Amino acid sequence: MAGLFHRDKYIRVKGVGEEEKRSLVCPECGKELNRTDVVVNHYICTACGNYFRVRTNNRIRMVCDKDTFIPWFEETDGGNPLNFPGYDEKLSSVREKTGLSEGITVGIGEICGEKACIGVCDSRFLMGSMGHAVGEKIALIFERAVSMKLPVVLFCCSGGARMQEGIISLMQMAKTSAAIKKHADAGLLYVTVLTDPTTGGVTASFAMLGDIILAEPGALIGFAGPRVIEQTIGQKLPKGFQRAEFQEEHGFVDRVVERDDLKTVLHQILKSHRVSALNNSFSHFTEEITKFTPTEVNRERLAKTPAKSAWDKVREARSVSRPSALTYIGLIFDDFLELHGDRSYGDDKAVAGGIAWLYGQPVTVIGIQKGNDAKECAMRNYGMASPEGYRKALRLMKQAEKFHRPVVCLINTSGAYPGMEAEERGQGEAIARNLFEMSLLKVPVLSVIIGEGGSGGALGLAVGNEVWMLENSTYSVLSPEGFASILWKDGKRAKEAAQVMGITADDLKRLSVIERIIPEYGAAGDSTVNDIAGFMKEQMAVFLKKFDGMDGAAVAEDRYRRFRKY
Question: Which residues of 231-266 are buried (b: 16+ CB within 10 A; e: fewer)?
Fold first, then answer.
């Protein structure tokens, strides 16, 4: 049967003539398409962008380097544990039609030269349902990956448990999860790519356990599928519910990736983790660093800028035109790959984080993003993070620790979000958990206040081996307005409060609360941001060089001693 697989049905080739076989109809938009064009377009509708399901061989061809994939465990047979009537005949029929031995194909291959263990589920084989053979092949590939010290990439597509195998199918959820745990404890990377559909027991086991979870646009992802929800409790579901974009917004997917970009993104992830594992040293920075020199104009500004009052600095730190965390990330680091979500509730837009490169060293970068115009500020909640923002940051930091990546935090917040919903979701606990876990992270942590450093909301990302401040930034126990209102019962005395609170970079350097002041060459803005970023980039490399040869316990102890002195 010729055809592409999409959602709940095949898209059949129109007619029987040779010319007609070259066309097909997209069920989403109804347009007649040239089959060759769709194949070249990675099985995406050339009219509406709808994603067709992809067969195993085509998936391997699109993602793996040519002739590098070698299948493993092809003889694995789950049998018929319940002696279910007609099941053996059904398996034989599906094997003949698909050319597959089971619902998943596993093996070893290369993605842009990066070696990995790879598994591909295929919905043509009983909707990719998980029976004993599927669970066994997944367990086997993780066990072999541990012995070979290799990452695993799984393309998930499944309707859930295989009904014909009953409770034995259910046991595969626990078995595969246990094998993944052994792989994780070995410090190895696991990436899942969720394709349409990923539901049921697969979602509640191996599909959602990746260190990094990617998804294809529009993929249905959920434990209870829409049909089950509607038939069980009669609830009508909104458009887009349980789709990949919904899952990213609700914190369960790191990134929705276009199919055209998938191989590149997987290569970036695999390479960063390989280099991190090999490069548990920062000695190479000696050769890599280019001595930074600010422009002549900014050198003159640095020499001529008059002293500013504490209140002047408060106003500058709060300025909406001040360069943001994402601006600095783009200037300092290479190939930033943003990752989303706390894997629990949501993706807080006030906190942006992911993997990037600094002079060839993979790092985890996390920034509190306030925004650079009214629209972005509203979208980012003015840089006031909610519990899910702190939990996202902590998830990325623990991931960095597992893969030996340093952590850099860029902070600009007036404070944690004080709303009712933040309290309901545990704002205090989320910040406390960050302080608790960051204190003994076994990788270097650098925190930089680039604007406002407001109270516990800032401290939740500022438990670093070193803390730096930009020249005109502030860092305080609360706002000057709040200080004046509490102590003097007069919020209008904020300017006076700023002067006595000790909140400027100079004050905090004198108190040994920070280690370095970053020059702004007058004021942080469009004309100075490149020089500020250049200075920070050079000094970040110098900072990391200090930890060359230091083991994780010593790095954590260095941070503990830093805060123990206060």
Answer: eeeeeeeeeeebbbebbbbbbbbbbbbebeebbebb
Number of H helices, E strands in the chain: 23, 20
Question: Residue 146: which H helix or E strand, with range?
Answer: helix 132-148
C-alpha separations of 288 from 272, 295, 541 in Å: 18, 21, 9
Helix (H) or strand (E) holding 470: strand 466-470
Cα torsion angle, 424, 425, 427, 429, sign: positive
Q: In the predicted model, is pLDDT for residue 296 greater than 90?
A: no
Residue 170 CA to residue 505 CA, distance in Å, equals 58
Q: Which of 310, 360, 299 is nearest to 333 (CA)?
A: 360
For the record, the structure tokens of 92 come out as 């034989």
d(CA 453, CA 202): 43
Per-residue tokens: 332? 């300092």
Which has the closest alpha carbon to 276: 25, 552, 502?
Answer: 552
Matching residue, tokens 């790519």? 193
pLDDT digits (tens, 9 = 90+) for 456-503: 999 999 999 999 999 999 999 999 999 999 999 998 999 999 999 999
Residue 120: exposure state from Cβ atoms within 10 A (0-12, 13-18, ≥19) = buried
Could you identify the residue written with the tokens 């990134």? 255
With a CB cutoff of 8 Å and minimum separation 6, the contacts of 211 are 184, 189, 190, 191, 399, 402, 403
Structure tokens at 145: 């990956």
Mean pLDDT over 407-436 rounds to: 97
Exposed/middle/buried for 135, CB within 10 Å: 0-12, 13-18, 19+?
buried
Q: Do the Cβ atoms of 52 and 12 come closer than 8 Å?
A: no
What is the token pair recorded at 448? Answer: 């930089």
The alpha-carbon radius of gyration of the chain (Å, integer) is: 27
* Paired tokens of 188: 């190895």
User: CA separation (Å) from 79 to 88, 100, 102?
Assistant: 8, 15, 11
533's tokens: 């970023």
**Span 158-182, mean pLDDT?**
96
Among 10, 7, 76, 4, smallest CA distance to 37 is for: 4
Rounded to an integer, what distance in angstroms lies between the CA atom of residue 225 and that of residue 122? 18
Overall residue count recorded for the chain in this entry:
566
Beta bridge partners of 408: 365, 446
- Residue type, position 138, single letter: I
What is the residue type of 425? R
For tokens 């925190």, the residue is 447
Q: Report the pLDDT value the prediction gives residue 287, as an integer from 0 to 100.
A: 56
The pairing of beta strand 190-199 with beta strand 221-222: parallel
Chain position carrying tokens 């909707």: 127
